[in-house]
Write a structure and sequence with these properties.
EC 4.2.1.136, binds potassium ion, nucleotide-binding, binds ligand NAX, about 40% helix, binds adenosine-5'-diphosphate, elongated, multifunctional enzyme, NAD(P)HX epimerase activity, 10-stranded mixed beta sheet, 7-stranded parallel beta sheet, Rossmann fold
């Protein structure tokens, strides 16, 4: 799914109105009716107090339409107009009159702190103060109203965006925004919804297709994509009937140290389970017996050193090399990694201590082959690119790093983001059950395996992250978030392949 910028969405509204020959009022009615339908299907007529906070622009107009429809269906509704300005939009004014026809009262007006209503924990709040039109900081009393609503602990549904949130700036103490339980957004999610620092403001995300002009949406180029099943299906390369193991490549996994052999065992298992033809593991000597018994399908080569990597020599020609899990960052290992980089120019995946070594020895970064995939978690990323001010700054820095070194960076987390040049691929699978030791090692194996099978490194990263998260989702249904461990993900990657083309009983939400 494309993720559009605010300007592109505003343009899409305009184009839709022209091409579909509808008024902006009709488009608002359409959008707000879809939100109403959703809320109605969940509340099912429940007589809970609903308080709608409407701005005076079109987001406020949406709120008024939703309020009118709720009133017409017998709900207890109080609509408030937050009078932060006198510049009311036309569609706001029209719907302001229309709601009065149904309620027989004008909505209550809030002009300052004295007008703030009491909000109880049991209220159901609809936040329609600001949407994508917010373009300057909230006035002091409006910020206080936002805090007042947040403090109430009532259940909050935000329309299009949580009010106070800018599309390109993180909310914070000084820049308050509504902390919604659910955000119902129109047509396209906004990038900020997927950034970790925005999570507490967005709650559960729902995207509603309001029928904006298909042609405009299709032909408008974006550099941000949300990766769901339809996008992942397009990346899959079917296997050939007459294939032999050579067709799916030979992956070399290098890592491990005394007490951390399990990590490469998990990576190797995941590499095989994702379909690589052959896997060889290179580890310190102490890994030999463990690896031969935990992953009998893999071949094992060992370093001359018992406990840590010191000299990486192998007499084979792998299609891809994965380096770093459990390797440590000792002097010997750093030197061995350096030799490896200088002497081998195979496609690479670098994880964990591989990234830590690059962070300490920055000049090694230029030895990485183009399109190498790096898979840092937040701590590793910070060591690599330095501290960031907020998640937007983080993306800016990673894009710069990716362009400068021609590398693919997988920013792991709840919505893992794959960065290549200025392009962002935001993954929409995965769950908190995957926050468990070793699940990153499994991801490295999945990506390595896809490269071994001749997927382009960027595709391997995007598709691999999707499959890894999807496997976690399928398993969480069977065994709970808590019960899920990394080995389960490695063992069951196949389920995510099967799921790719399984017919859904009902359409998948986001
Ligand atoms: N344009 C369309 O056809 C549609 C728009 N829709 C809704 O319209 C919203 C966008 O509406 P608007 O563009 O009217 O903007 P908003 O309703 O988001 O913002 C209200 C207005 O307040 C002004 N403003 C911005 N920051 C302010 C501040 N800090 N203090 C005081 N005033 C401020 C802006 O000039 C803006 O026009 C979307 O988020 C969506 O909810 C939907 O109804 C779908 C269709
Ligand atoms: N809350 C979450 N939602 C989705 N995916 C998650 C979540 N927490 C962790 N993950 C995924 O689990 C993996 C954890 O990797 P990492 O932190 O490197 O773990 P380890 O070092 O133990 O292997 C990453 O792929 C990450 O995206
Ligand atoms: K809003």
């Amino acid at each position: 799914m494309k993720i559009f910028d605010i300007e592109q969405l505003a343009k899409a509204d305009k184009v839709t109105i022209e091409k579909q020959e509808i008024s902006s009022t009709e488009l608002m009615e359409r959008a707000a009716t879809l939100v109403f339908n959703d809320i109605h299907s969940k509340l099912n007529g429940a007589q809970i107090p609903i308080k709608i906070f409407c701005g005076i622009g079109n987001n406020g107009g949406d709120g008024l339409v939703i309020g009118r429809l709720l009133l017409e269906h017998g709900y207890q509704v109080i609509a408030y107009v937050v009078n932060y300005s006198n510049k009311r939009s036309q569609d706001f004014l029209l719907n302001y009159d229309r709601i009065k026809e149904v309620s027989n009262n004008w909505p209550s007006s809030i002009k300052g702190e004295d007008d703030f209503p009491e909000i109880s924990e049991k209220d159901f709040i609809i936040d329609a103060m600001f949407g994508i039109g917010l373009n300057r900081p909230l006035e002091d009393w409006v910020g206080k109203l936002v805090r007042h609503i947040n403090r109430s602990k009532a259940f909050i549904v935000a329309i299009d965006m949580p009010s106070g949130m800018f599309a390109d700036k993180m909310p914070n103490e000084k820049r308050p925004a509504i902390k919604a339980n659910v955000t119902i957004t129109f047509q396209s999610p906004k990038l900020i919804f997927f950034l970790p620092q925005a999570a507490e403001y967005i709650g559960d995300l729902q995207v509603i297709d309001i029928g904006l002009d298909r042609e405009y949406l299709a032909k408008t180029a974006v550099n941000k994509q949300l990766i769901n099943k339809p996008e992942a299906q397009l990346l899959y390369k079917p296997r050939i009937n007459f294939a032999h193991k050579g067709d799916y490549g030979h992956a070399l996994i290098i890592g491990g140290s005394y007490g951390k052999i399990g990590s490469i065992s998990l990576t190797a298992k995941a590499t095989l389970k994702t379909g690589a033809g052959m896997v060889t593991i290179f580890s310190p000597k102490c890994g030999y017996q463990i690896l031969q018994s935990t992953v009998p399908e893999a071949m094992v080569l060992t370093d001359e050193n018992e406990e840590t990597l010191s000299n990486i020599e192998f007499d084979l020609s792998p299609d891809v090399i994965c380096f770093g899990m459990g390797a440590g960052t000792s002097k010997e290992t750093t030197a061995a990694f350096k030799d490896l980089l200088i002497n081998t120019k195979k496609p690479m995946v670098i994880d964990a201590d591989g990234i830590n070594i690059l962070s300490k020895e920055k000049e090694l970064i230029k030895e990485l082959p183009e399109n190498t995939v790096l898979t840092p978690h937040p701590g590793e990323l910070e060591r690599l690119i330095g501290k960031w001010k907020d998640d937007f700054d983080k993306l800016y820095k990673v894009k710069k790093f990716s362009k400068e070194h021609k590398l693919i960076v997988v920013i792991k987390g709840a919505h893992t983001i794959i960065v290549f040049n200025d392009d962002l691929y935001i993954n929409n699978t995965g769950n908190p059950g995957m926050a468990t030791a070793g699940s990153g090692d499994v991801l490295s194996g999945v990506i390595t395996s896809l490269i071994s099978q001749k997927y382009e490194p960027l595709i391997a990263a995007v598709f691999g992250v999707y499959l890894h998260g999807k496997t976690g989702d399928i398993l969480a249904e069977e065994m709970s978030y808590e019960g899920l461990i990394a080995g389960d993900i490695a063992d069951n990657i196949g389920k995510s392949f099967l799921d790719l083309f399984k017919k859904e009983m009902q359409s998948e939400g986001n």
